[in-house]
C-alpha cells in the first residue's frame, strides 16, 4: 500500500512501467498528496551541474577520475615493490605514532591509498558525470512478477548506458585495470606462508615461539604490574603478558609478540585441578592453584577471557569452543581441535609470578604443518 500517491496520473495505478518518472515530469503531470490529504511539499528546483552544461568541465572530471584510477594502479604496483624491497626488520620512528615496522607501514599505505583512490574515483565519477536526474518512484507491493524482473533488467541496462561505462573508455579501462590489480597484493603476501629469507625461522617455527622465557615476570595487560599469588582470588581471571613485552614491541615495531604471548591467569582450589598439560606431582605447572593459559583460541585465534569459575570452563565467544581449564584445558564443546596451551609458572625470589619457560605447544589456530 502506498504512503504517497498521485491524484491525477497513471503513475499510481499499479502499472510498474509507469511508476518511475523524473521529478520534472512528475511536477508537470501529478500532484502528490500525503495520506492525511495535504499536498506534499514541492520538490526543490533542480540545478544542473557544471559538467552537465560545459563539455570542458565534463572532460576535466573524466580526466580526474581516470587519474585516480591510474594512481591506484601505480600504488598496487608499488605495494609489490615495497613488499620485495623494504626490509621486514627495519623499524622507523614517527612523531606522535611511535616506532613501527617500515615494511608494514609502506604496505599499509600503498594498499590503503589504492583502495581509497578507487573509491574516491568512483564517487567523483558518480557525482560529476553520471546522470543528475531526480526520479520519483511510487511505492507498490514487493512482488516479483516476471514483468518486474524484466523491468529491473531494463533499468540495469539503462543504468549501464547512463553511467557512461560503455562510452567513457578511458574511465572504463583504468577502472578495469585497477580492479584487475586489486588481488595482486593479497596474493603476493601469501608468499610469506612458505618462503622465508635465508637464516630466518620458517613461519611454522615463528608460530612455535613466543617471548615467554624462563624467569620472565608475568604482568597485568594494560598496567604492566607484576603479580603476586595473593593478588589473585580463587575464581579470578586476569589478562596478562610478559614483562618484556613493551620493550619488544618498541624494538620490533609491531604487535606480533603481543599476538602470540597474550595469556590469562585463573586461580582455582588445587584440589579442583584434575590434570595439567605437564609437570610432576612435585613440580606441577600450576602454582598453588594458579594456572596460566594462552589467551588465543586454538580454533581460529580469537582472544578469550570468558571464564565460568563454577565449572572452570573457558568459553570462546567466536564459535563457542569451550575448554575445561581444570582438566588440561581440553575441548569439551565446539569446533576447536586442541586444548588451550598451558604455561608452567612459579614465583621468583621476590614472590612475583614468573614463567618457567615458553609454551610447550603451538599457540593459536592449528595449521597444516602442525597436524590437527
Ligand atoms: S575462534 Fe574460538 S571457537 Fe572459533
Automatic annotation (TrEMBL):
Residue ranges occupied by any Rieske domain in the UniProt entry: 265-354
Keywords: 2Fe-2S, Cell membrane, Disulfide bond, Electron transport, Iron, Iron-sulfur, Membrane, Metal-binding, Oxidoreductase, Respiratory chain, Transmembrane, Transmembrane helix, Transport
Region annotation Disordered: where it falls in the sequence: 1-29
InterPro entries from the UniProt entry: QcrA_N, Rieske_2Fe-2S, Rieske_2Fe-2S_sf, Rieske_Fe-S_prot, Rieske_Fe-S_prot_C
Keyword Secreted: no
Bilayer-spanning residue ranges: 65-85, 105-126, 175-194
Cofactor (UniProt): [2Fe-2S] cluster
Keyword Cytoplasm: no
SUPFAM superfamilies in the cross-refs: ISP domain (SSF50022)
Signal peptide: none
A Gene Ontology cellular-component term: plasma membrane
A Pfam short name: QcrA_N
Subcellular location: Cell membrane
GO molecular function: 2 iron, 2 sulfur cluster binding; metal ion binding; oxidoreductase activity
Stretches with biased composition (Polar residues): 1-10
Membrane topology, as annotated: Multi-pass membrane protein
Name of the molecule in the record: Rieske iron-sulfur protein
Organism listed in the record: freshwater metagenome
Amino acid at each position: 500500500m502506498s504512503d504517497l500517491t498521485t491524484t491525477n496520473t497513471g503513475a499510481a495505478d499499479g502499472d510498474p512501467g509507469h511508476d518511475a518518472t523524473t521529478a520534472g515530469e512528475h511536477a508537470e503531470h501529478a500532484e502528490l498528496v500525503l495520506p492525511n490529504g495535504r499536498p506534499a511539499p514541492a520538490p526543490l528546483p533542480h540545478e544542473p551541474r557544471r559538467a552537465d552544461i560545459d563539455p570542458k568541465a565534463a572532460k576535466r572530471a573524466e580526466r580526474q577520475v581516470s587519474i585516480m584510477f591510474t594512481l591506484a594502479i601505480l600504488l598496487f604496483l608499488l605495494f609489490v615493490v615495497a613488499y620485495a624491497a623494504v626490509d621486514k626488520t627495519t623499524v622507523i620512528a614517527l612523531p606522535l605514532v611511535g616506532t613501527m615496522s617500515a615494511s608494514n607501514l609502506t604496505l599499509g599505505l600503498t594498499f590503503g591509498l589504492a583502495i581509497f583512490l578507487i573509491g574516491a574515483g568512483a564517487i567523483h565519477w558518480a557525482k560529476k558525470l553520471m546522470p543528475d536526474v531526480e526520479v520519483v518512484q511510487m511505492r507498490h507491493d514487493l512482488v516479483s512478477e516476471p514483468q518486474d524482473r524484466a523491468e529491473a533488467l531494463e533499468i540495469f541496462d539503462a543504468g549501464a548506458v547512463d553511467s557512461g561505462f560503455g562510452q567513457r573508455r578511458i574511465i572504463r579501462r583504468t577502472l578495469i585495470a585497477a580492479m584487475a590489480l586489486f588481488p595482486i597484493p593479497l596474493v603476493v603476501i601469501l608468499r610469506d606462508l612458505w618462503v622465508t629469507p635465508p637464516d630466518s625461522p620458517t613461519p611454522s617455527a615463528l608460530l612455535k615461539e613466543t617471548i615467554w622465557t624462563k624467569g620472565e615476570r608475568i604482568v597485568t595487560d594494560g598496567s604492566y604490574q607484576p603479580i603476586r599469588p595473593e593478588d589473585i582470588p580463587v575464581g579470578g581471571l586476569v589478562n596478562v603478558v610478559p614483562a618484556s613485552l613493551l620493550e619488544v614491541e618498541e624494538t620490533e615495531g609491531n604487535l606480533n609478540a603481543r599476538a602470540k604471548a597474550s595469556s590469562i591467569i585463573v586461580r582455582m582450589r588445587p584440589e579442583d585441578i584434575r590434570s595439567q598439560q605437564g609437570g610432576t606431582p612435585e613440580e606441577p605447572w600450576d602454582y598453588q592453584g594458579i594456572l596460566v593459559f594462552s589467551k588465543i583460541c586454538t580454533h581460529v585465534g580469537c582472544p578469550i577471557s570468558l571464564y565460568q569459575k563454577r565449572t572452570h570452563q573457558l568459553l570462546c565467544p567466536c564459535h563457542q569452543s569451550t575448554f575445561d581449564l581444570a582438566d588440561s584445558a581440553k575441548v569439551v564443546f565446539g569446533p576447536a581441535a586442541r586444548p588451550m596451551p598451558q604455561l608452567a609458572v612459579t614465583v621468583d625470589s621476590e614472590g612475583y609470578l614468573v614463567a618457567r619457560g615458553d609454551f610447550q605447544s603451538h599457540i593459536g589456530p592449528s595449521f597444516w604443518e602442525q597436524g590437527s
